[in-house]
């Protein structure tokens, strides 16, 4: 990834907003079960209360992380068409001569076969490179190369 804020596709933004809504609902449910401090209960009750409080803290941390990422993506603007970044559409020629157009995203999406996550070996290799650059990356069958033919915007334009 680059040093600055990274743009985010609408698909990724939508997925994070759905996760955020689910986490807020879960957090509200956990908060409703946190007991009254005036009723100490037995040790099992105290341990259960501690577990719920720890779960609330975990949910709060994830909510804060997602909100921060959404703010960062809003400030980043659209991805560059000069170099590969999150949100870029990239035309590549692989070492075996085949060509493919992939989109670089943050979150995996089983319904999008053209999506390559920025954390994947190919995604990491492509980030920061421009058209004409050759990159090497690891595959289950060993190291291979790809040449970047073009870098475009999320709508597929160059």
Automatic annotation (TrEMBL):
Signal peptide (UniProt feature, chain positions): none
Compositionally biased spans, kind Basic and acidic residues: 40-57
Any GO MF annotation of the entry: translation elongation factor activity
Region annotation (Disordered) ranges: 31-57, 69-88
Span of domain Transcription elongation factor GreA/GreB C-terminal: 81-151
Chain intervals with Low complexity compositional bias: 77-88
Protein name in the entry: GreA/GreB family elongation factor
Organism, scientific name: Streptomyces roseolus
């Amino acid at each position: 990834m680059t040093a600055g804020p990274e743009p985010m596709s609408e698909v990724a933004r939508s997925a994070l907003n759905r996760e955020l809504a689910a986490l807020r609902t879960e957090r509200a449910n956990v908060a409703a079960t946190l007991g009254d401090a005036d009723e100490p209960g037995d040790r099992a009750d105290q341990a259960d209360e501690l577990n719920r409080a720890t779960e609330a803290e975990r949910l709060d941390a994830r909510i804060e992380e997602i909100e921060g990422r959404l703010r960062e993506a809003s400030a980043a603007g659209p991805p560059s068409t000069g170099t590969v970044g999150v949100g870029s559409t990239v035309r590549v020629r692989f070492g075996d001569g085949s060509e493919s157009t992939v989109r670089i995203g943050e979150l995996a999406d089983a319904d999008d076969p053209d999506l390559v996550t920025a954390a994947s070996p190919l995604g990491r290799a492509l980030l920061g490179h421009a058209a004409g650059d050759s990159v090497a990356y690891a595959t289950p069958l060993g190291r291979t190369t790809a040449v970047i033919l073009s870098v475009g915007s999320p709508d597929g334009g160059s």
